[in-house]
Amino acid sequence: MKVLTVDTEVNPEHPVSGASVPKRPAPRLPGREPELSRLTSLFPLALDGTAASAVLVGEFGMGKTATLHTAAALAADAGFTVAVATGSRLESHLPGGVARQLADALDDPGAPRPPVADLCGPAGESEALDLFFRIIRDATERGPLFLGIDNVHLADAWSMRCLAYIRHRVLDLPVLIILTSLIGHPPHREVALLEMAGCTPATITLNGLGDAGAAEILGLAPGELATACREATGGNPYLLQALRPRLLPGADPHELGSSLIGQVLHTRMAEFPDAPAILHAAAILGEDAGFDLLAQLAGVDELDALQAIDTMVRLHVLNNSNAPTLTYPFVRNSVLRDMPKTTRAVNHARAAKLLSETGAPVERVAAHLLEATSIRIPWGVDVLRLSARNAVFSGRPELASRHLRRALEERLTSGRRVAVLLQLAHAEFQVDPPAAAQRVREAVDTIGNRDTAAFIASAMLLSLCGGQDARLAISAAGQIAARLDAGGPDAVWPLLCMTYLAEAGSRLGPPPEFRDFEEQWAPLTDPAAQRSRSALLALDAVRSGESAPDAVGHFADALSLTAGAAAPDPAGDEPELFEQHYFFTLATAVLADEPTLVDRLCRVLDVEREPWDVHIPHGALPTLARGIALQASGDLQRASVHFESLLRRFDERGGTTTCPVGVLCAAKLVECWVDLGRFEAATSLLDRMDFVASQGLFTHTYLLYARGRLRVATGYTRFGFEDLLSCGRRLAHHGMRFPGFVPWRAHAARAALALGQADDAARLAEEDMNASARWGAARPLGTALTTMGLVREDDEAERALNKSITTLGSSPARLQLATALTELGTLQARHGQSEKAIETLRQAVELSEHCGARPLARRAAEELRSARRTLTPAKDNEHGLTRQENRIAVMAAQGLTNREIATALHLTRRTVELHLSGAYRKLGIPGRAELGGALAKSQRGG
Q1: Rounded to 5 degrees, what angle do the CA atoms 604, 610, 616 make?
Q2: Are residues 97 and 219 both part of a single domain?
Q3: Domain enclosing residue 150, as ranges
Q4: pLDDT tens digits, residue range 244-297?
Q5: Which of 5, 176, 725, 745 has its CA 20 to 30 A from that of 596?
Q6: 831 Cβ neighbours under 8 A, 6+ residues apart
Q7: Residue 889 forms part of a structural domain
Q8: Which residues form the HTH luxR-type domain (predicted)?
Q9: 161, part of any domain
């Protein structure tokens, strides 16, 4: 068949025959102008006497019928005789139904031929087919003919044969045949679509309307609401019409549906085996739909399910993807609304179980549990709680509250009810603090088991890491402790300890006092209570800054008790003190120089369960602890690898700037990069840190320290100095006298010297020396002695630096030792002790390079080259004076005093005197009076 596509034209001079469709204005179809244009472009071909055909396909509700009838009205106006027949599912078994509709429309009572009834009557098969053809041919003699067959896929077999019979016999007749068919409908067993339409019909696919067309059908102005409606229905006109009366103010189109549409779709699918069951399963599963789950939930054999899914995909009922979901949200909602509530609930419960067994994300399992409201699902409580936990920390507290209220519908033990109520309080606290307070009181009133309640409150303290969250946890824990009689059983003491640690780490003011508890510690026998006692003693020692051995000993006791204790609580693993952010931060700072204890700490932290704080990745705490220990030993490269890998995981969870441990990790990495000389990377990391959001965290202090160090190292000395002073003020305000947490005074003193503030530098060095001497650990003491060597002069400076090297030599602090060696070598060279300086600086270069501290290694190497040059004899004299001796001798010969020479060359007078004595000896003169002549004679001789 020849098909011609031209612009729409109507020949007004063509004779018009009587049409079976009365002339009337063609109805307007929003958004279907392109398709109608293609249909009307076929009119001129048929009007000129050549047959043409088109197939109009689309999914259910896309407007095939309306488009066909509009084209028929336009054809009638153009002079066609129009005959339209419609296939029906309920009449598809009646032979000749569609053919008779066409014949009745075209019947000419005056024509001498058998009656139309003979199409399916006693006449033979060939006579009946010939009769149908003659009816069509006779109609074309009266004028061009428009034949429209709507829903041809539902036509009876005999009518399909009639259409196929005439198709090859009307090629030279003025006939336009338009067939509409449901897209993807399985072909009839006898006659294919192309046999009725010809081999090359114009095929027009009706797709969903655009935003403008959807808005016109809905009676809306174009905008976000019309777009949302179009998305919910796929632009399907029939679905848009069904949506329109349900579009009440404030309604979300993606949540709307029609039970009537659900019934219609279910009826349409009934003709295909197993399709209704797959339809219901797909509606229940939603985005979780997959082949295996669809088959299992539908209770259909896999091969039968595959065939049903294939059919539904071809019909555009299911999406053609690996997850064959229903095509549009409105369709899914409609199928669900057509389902009885009990049926829906049971199916959602089954879907939740299937998803859980396949290891699906808890959020997806919980979504189905929410819909199974009338079904008891005890195993789902943990899923709902975990999903709620994730929802809170991803900024969706309302969803978390829904999950937890659903969990409360289950039959819960007293302990589990307390846990769920406290978790619900946290979720509600984000949007309604008074309601959260009421939940806490309800949880306290529900307490039945003392140990379980204390455990749950401790877990809550570990879960809520900072800011308002932490204050809620502290308040809840305090109420529970009071209810359990804080002065009584051993089981309450771990809760009191954890509450104290959380409070101490989340407030910016002075810490709470706990010495009043000391008298009650003696009778404690429970391991958990003894562990909490050791933790508080360790914290007291750290805060006071009085004794490093005491602090290390108490931390070691807490670790020993932790490692040997079993978790007695039935609710799960016992919360550990060392997982508390504040306690962990201080413990790693104290234990960094204790390799054995660091290993023990990492073993304690390396638990199989997920961390209590959702921001912290699994295994993050032992990784961070090892990184801190590596950094403390001067292994900067390996430490940075630990910090970088961990920081990426914090970034994935959004905890880098909000979680105290995430902030600590970022700050340690910045400090490490500063020592490695990676200033650009450190700057980039700090630029994305939220200093405002982290202000309420204790580890923000370390962030200030890291930024101060970076600023000083990159030339922004004044700003760096202010950061370091701010760090010190925060520590003082926090009651922290432990000098080893961050050596801020040492770096602030260096910055003060660079700024010319010698008095401030001396004061800071003196304070650091006193604090470090009182603490007694090698690292802070050696660091303080190095700082004293910078601010003191002459022999005092050299003694301080030598003592620093001796002190640091007994500790793992190799980077600090390299720093002390560099400062001592520089001082020795300045004092004219070049031989000593060279040996000292050589050690400094080797050690700093071993640490990977490139800036320090470069400085030590420069000082080493300078020291070696001073030992090289000057080329312009014959007596072997070094460059430094020659320079000082020339200045003395010019009349400068020893003090003036020392000031000009930044040397001590003692150093000047030593160089002059060496020059006198080499020149063979008794003193300064003969210096000028001896130098002149030496130069003439040279």
Answers
A1: 90
A2: no
A3: 33-206
A4: 999 988 899 999 999 999 999 999 999 899 999 999 999 999 999 999 999 999
A5: 745
A6: 798, 907, 908, 910, 911, 914
A7: yes
A8: 874-942
A9: yes
CB of 304 within 8 A of CB of 322?
no
Widest Cα–Cα separation across the chain: 155
Q: What is the pLDDT of residue 473?
A: 85
Distance of alpha carbon 845 from alpha carbon 637, whole angstroms = 17
Q: What is the 3-state secondary structure (H, E, C) of 304-356?
A: HHHHHHHHHHHCCCECCCCCCCECCHHHHHHHHHCCCHHHHHHHHHHHHHHHH
Give the separation between CA 104 and CA 744, rounded to whole angstroms. 101
Torsion angle in degrees (nearest 10) through CA of 85, 87, 93, 96: 20
Mean pLDDT of the chain: 86
In this structure, is residue 517 part of a structural domain? no
Residue with tokens 């014949």: 103
Establish if 394 belongs to a structural domain.
Answer: no
Q: Within this chain, do residues 178 and 82 fall inside the same structural domain, yes or no?
A: yes
What CATH number did the domain enclosing 133 receive?
A: 3.40.50.300
Instruction: Summarize the confidence of residues 814-826 as an average pLDDT.
Output: 95
Q: Tell me the pairing of strands 175-182 and 81-86.
A: unpaired
How much is the pLDDT for 938? 66
Angstrom distance (rounded) from CA 458 to CA 569: 12
Q: Per mean pLDDT, which range of 173-177, 321-325, 646-650, 654-658 is the poorest?
A: 654-658
Give the pLDDT mean for 698-726.
Answer: 95
**Model confidence band, residue 16 (pLDDT cutoffs 50, 70, 90):** very low
Q: Domain of 920: which CATH number?
A: 1.10.10.10
Q: Which residues of 352-368 are buried (b: 16+ CB within 10 A; e: fewer)?
A: bbbbbeeebebbbbbbb
Summarize pLDDT for 470-529 with one digit per residue, the tens: 888 888 888 888 887 654 556 677 788 888 888 877 765 555 555 555 555 555 667 777
CA distance 379 to 374: 15
Asked if 370 and 402 touch (Cβ cutoff 8 Å), the reply is yes
What tokens were used for 689? 């840190």
Query: Domain end: 179, 206, 233, which one?
Result: 206
* Residues recorded for the chain: 942
Picking from 829, 846, 871, the residue at the C-terminal end of a domain is 871
Do 83 and 155 lie in one domain? The reply is yes
How far is residue 870's CA from residue 885's CA, in Å, rounded to a whole number? 8
* Three-state DSSP class for residue 580: coil
DSSP codes joined into one string, 450-515: HHHHHHHHHHHHHH--SHHHHHHHHHHHHHHHHHT-TTS-TTHHHHHHHHHHHHHHH-SSPPPP-G
188 and 114 in a common domain: yes
Count the neighbouring beta carbons within 10 Å of the beta carbon of residue 102. 27
Q: What is the pLDDT of residues 430-458, one digit of tens each?
A: 888 888 889 888 888 888 777 788 888 88
Query: What is the predicted pLDDT for the residue at 894?
Result: 79
Predicted confidence at residue 26, as pLDDT, reads: 52
Number of structural domains the chain divides into: 4
**DSSP secondary-structure letter at 246?**
G
Q: Which of the four pLDDT bands, split at 50, 70 and 90, describes residue 666? A: very high
Based on the domain organization, do 81 and 218 belong to the same domain?
A: no
CB 182 within 8 A of CB 57: yes
The answer to whether residues 590 and 552 touch, using CB atoms and an 8 Å cutoff, is: yes
Q: Are 911 and 863 members of one domain?
A: no
Residue 216 and residue 67 share a domain: no
On whether both 836 and 913 belong to a single domain, the answer is no
Region 54-67 average pLDDT? 93
SS3 185: coil
Residue 744: band (very low, low, confident or very high) from pLDDT cuts 50, 70, 90: very high
